[in-house]
Automatic annotation (TrEMBL):
This is KAT8 regulatory NSL complex subunit 2. It comes from Syrrhaptes paradoxus (Pallas's sandgrouse). One of its GO terms (biological process) is chromatin organization. Keywords: Chromatin regulator, Isopeptide bond, Mitochondrion, Nucleus, Phosphoprotein, Ubl conjugation. Its main location: mitochondrion. The keyword Ubl conjugation applies. The keyword Transferase does not apply. The gene is Kansl2_1.
Length: 173
Protein backbone atom coordinates (compact mmCIF):
# COMPACT_ATOMS: atom_id res chain seq x y z
CA UNK A 1 0.00 0.00 0.00
CA UNK A 2 2.87 2.40 0.60
CA UNK A 3 3.92 2.38 -3.06
CA UNK A 4 0.50 3.71 -4.02
CA UNK A 5 0.76 6.55 -1.52
CA UNK A 6 4.18 7.84 -2.58
CA UNK A 7 3.21 10.15 -5.40
CA UNK A 8 0.92 13.15 -4.77
CA UNK A 9 -0.09 13.32 -8.42
CA UNK A 10 -3.61 12.27 -9.09
CA UNK A 11 -4.62 12.62 -5.40
CA UNK A 12 -7.39 14.92 -4.34
CA UNK A 13 -6.97 17.35 -1.46
CA UNK A 14 -8.75 15.03 1.02
CA UNK A 15 -6.58 12.07 -0.02
CA UNK A 16 -3.42 14.20 0.42
CA UNK A 17 -4.56 15.16 3.92
CA UNK A 18 -5.22 11.49 4.78
CA UNK A 19 -1.77 10.60 3.40
CA UNK A 20 -0.13 13.22 5.61
CA UNK A 21 -1.97 11.87 8.68
CA UNK A 22 -0.94 8.31 7.84
CA UNK A 23 2.73 9.28 7.58
CA UNK A 24 2.50 11.14 10.90
CA UNK A 25 0.95 8.09 12.59
CA UNK A 26 3.72 5.84 11.25
CA UNK A 27 6.36 8.07 12.89
CA UNK A 28 4.38 8.70 16.09
CA UNK A 29 6.37 6.36 18.37
CA UNK A 30 9.78 6.69 16.70
CA UNK A 31 12.53 8.52 18.56
CA UNK A 32 14.88 10.99 16.89
CA UNK A 33 18.18 12.61 17.79
CA UNK A 34 19.29 12.62 21.42
CA UNK A 35 16.17 10.79 22.55
CA UNK A 36 16.90 7.90 20.16
CA UNK A 37 20.54 7.71 21.32
CA UNK A 38 19.58 7.64 25.02
CA UNK A 39 16.90 5.02 24.38
CA UNK A 40 19.37 2.75 22.55
CA UNK A 41 21.93 3.10 25.38
CA UNK A 42 19.25 2.25 27.95
CA UNK A 43 18.27 -0.87 25.99
CA UNK A 44 21.93 -1.97 25.80
CA UNK A 45 22.38 -1.49 29.57
CA UNK A 46 19.23 -3.49 30.25
CA UNK A 47 20.40 -6.31 27.97
CA UNK A 48 23.78 -6.46 29.69
CA UNK A 49 22.14 -6.44 33.13
CA UNK A 50 19.62 -9.15 32.31
CA UNK A 51 22.15 -11.31 30.44
CA UNK A 52 24.59 -11.04 33.33
CA UNK A 53 21.90 -11.82 35.90
CA UNK A 54 20.60 -14.75 33.88
CA UNK A 55 24.10 -16.09 33.35
CA UNK A 56 24.93 -15.66 37.05
CA UNK A 57 21.69 -17.36 38.09
CA UNK A 58 22.42 -20.20 35.68
CA UNK A 59 25.92 -20.79 37.08
CA UNK A 60 24.73 -20.71 40.69
CA UNK A 61 21.74 -22.92 39.82
CA UNK A 62 23.84 -25.54 38.07
CA UNK A 63 26.33 -25.63 40.93
CA UNK A 64 23.68 -26.43 43.56
CA UNK A 65 23.78 -30.02 44.69
CA UNK A 66 21.41 -32.11 46.70
CA UNK A 67 21.67 -31.60 50.48
CA UNK A 68 20.88 -35.22 51.38
CA UNK A 69 23.49 -37.46 52.99
CA UNK A 70 23.69 -41.18 52.25
CA UNK A 71 26.02 -43.14 54.57
CA UNK A 72 27.66 -39.87 55.74
CA UNK A 73 28.41 -38.90 52.12
CA UNK A 74 26.69 -35.96 50.49
CA UNK A 75 24.64 -36.76 47.38
CA UNK A 76 26.33 -35.55 44.20
CA UNK A 77 23.15 -35.25 42.09
CA UNK A 78 21.97 -31.76 41.07
CA UNK A 79 18.95 -30.51 42.97
CA UNK A 80 15.57 -30.01 41.36
CA UNK A 81 14.62 -26.44 40.39
CA UNK A 82 13.49 -24.33 43.34
CA UNK A 83 14.44 -27.08 45.82
CA UNK A 84 17.45 -28.28 47.79
CA UNK A 85 17.10 -31.98 47.03
CA UNK A 86 17.45 -34.21 43.98
CA UNK A 87 14.64 -36.43 42.66
CA UNK A 88 15.84 -39.43 44.66
CA UNK A 89 15.83 -37.52 47.98
CA UNK A 90 13.00 -35.01 47.44
CA UNK A 91 10.78 -36.76 49.99
CA UNK A 92 13.24 -35.80 52.75
CA UNK A 93 12.16 -32.17 52.32
CA UNK A 94 9.27 -31.64 54.74
CA UNK A 95 8.09 -28.43 53.03
CA UNK A 96 7.54 -29.85 49.54
CA UNK A 97 4.09 -31.03 48.49
CA UNK A 98 4.66 -32.27 44.93
CA UNK A 99 6.09 -35.72 45.67
CA UNK A 100 5.17 -38.62 47.96
CA UNK A 101 6.95 -41.90 48.56
CA UNK A 102 5.42 -44.88 46.79
CA UNK A 103 3.66 -47.09 49.35
CA UNK A 104 4.67 -50.22 47.44
CA UNK A 105 3.09 -53.53 48.35
CA UNK A 106 3.22 -55.80 51.38
CA UNK A 107 5.72 -58.13 49.69
CA UNK A 108 7.94 -55.42 48.20
CA UNK A 109 8.18 -52.13 50.10
CA UNK A 110 9.07 -49.16 47.90
CA UNK A 111 9.97 -45.60 48.84
CA UNK A 112 10.59 -44.23 45.36
CA UNK A 113 9.36 -40.60 45.05
CA UNK A 114 6.24 -40.31 42.91
CA UNK A 115 4.63 -37.05 41.75
CA UNK A 116 1.31 -36.36 43.40
CA UNK A 117 -1.45 -36.68 40.84
CA UNK A 118 -5.21 -36.71 40.86
CA UNK A 119 -5.35 -40.21 42.34
CA UNK A 120 -5.63 -40.76 46.08
CA UNK A 121 -2.61 -43.07 46.29
CA UNK A 122 0.08 -42.27 43.73
CA UNK A 123 2.30 -45.25 42.94
CA UNK A 124 5.36 -45.88 40.85
CA UNK A 125 4.83 -47.79 37.57
CA UNK A 126 5.99 -51.01 39.23
CA UNK A 127 3.24 -50.90 41.89
CA UNK A 128 0.47 -49.29 39.87
CA UNK A 129 -2.84 -51.03 40.43
CA UNK A 130 -4.75 -51.45 37.20
CA UNK A 131 -8.55 -51.18 37.18
CA UNK A 132 -10.52 -54.40 36.64
CA UNK A 133 -10.96 -55.52 33.07
CA UNK A 134 -14.14 -54.02 31.65
CA UNK A 135 -14.14 -55.94 28.37
CA UNK A 136 -15.05 -59.61 28.54
CA UNK A 137 -14.22 -61.43 25.30
CA UNK A 138 -17.09 -63.35 23.79
CA UNK A 139 -16.89 -67.11 23.56
CA UNK A 140 -16.23 -68.60 20.14
CA UNK A 141 -19.36 -69.30 18.16
CA UNK A 142 -20.27 -72.97 18.03
CA UNK A 143 -20.28 -74.25 14.43
CA UNK A 144 -22.92 -76.91 13.74
CA UNK A 145 -21.55 -80.34 12.92
CA UNK A 146 -23.26 -80.55 9.54
CA UNK A 147 -21.28 -77.49 8.34
CA UNK A 148 -18.02 -78.96 9.54
CA UNK A 149 -18.56 -82.19 7.60
CA UNK A 150 -19.40 -80.44 4.29
CA UNK A 151 -18.25 -82.25 1.14
CA UNK A 152 -15.12 -80.85 -0.40
CA UNK A 153 -16.27 -81.45 -3.98
CA UNK A 154 -18.35 -78.24 -3.81
CA UNK A 155 -15.21 -76.13 -3.87
CA UNK A 156 -13.30 -75.34 -7.08
CA UNK A 157 -9.57 -75.78 -7.27
CA UNK A 158 -7.23 -73.04 -8.45
CA UNK A 159 -6.82 -74.71 -11.85
CA UNK A 160 -10.57 -74.77 -12.38
CA UNK A 161 -10.80 -71.06 -11.61
CA UNK A 162 -8.36 -70.14 -14.42
CA UNK A 163 -10.01 -69.12 -17.73
CA UNK A 164 -9.40 -71.60 -20.52
CA UNK A 165 -9.85 -69.29 -23.46
CA UNK A 166 -9.42 -65.59 -23.91
CA UNK A 167 -12.70 -63.87 -24.56
CA UNK A 168 -12.89 -60.33 -25.95
CA UNK A 169 -14.00 -57.75 -23.45
CA UNK A 170 -17.17 -55.91 -24.33
CA UNK A 171 -18.08 -52.63 -22.79
CA UNK A 172 -21.69 -51.52 -22.70
CA UNK A 173 -23.46 -48.56 -21.24
Amino acid sequence: GSSLLTGPEGLMAKERENLKRLKCLRRYRQRYGVEALLHRQLKERRMLATDGAAQQAHTTRSSQRCLAFVDDVRCSNPSLPMTRHCLAHICQDANQTLFRPCPGSEEVPCHKPVPVSLSEEPCCPLHLRLPPQMYVPEQALAVPEELEAAPTDLYLSAAELQPTESLPLEFSD
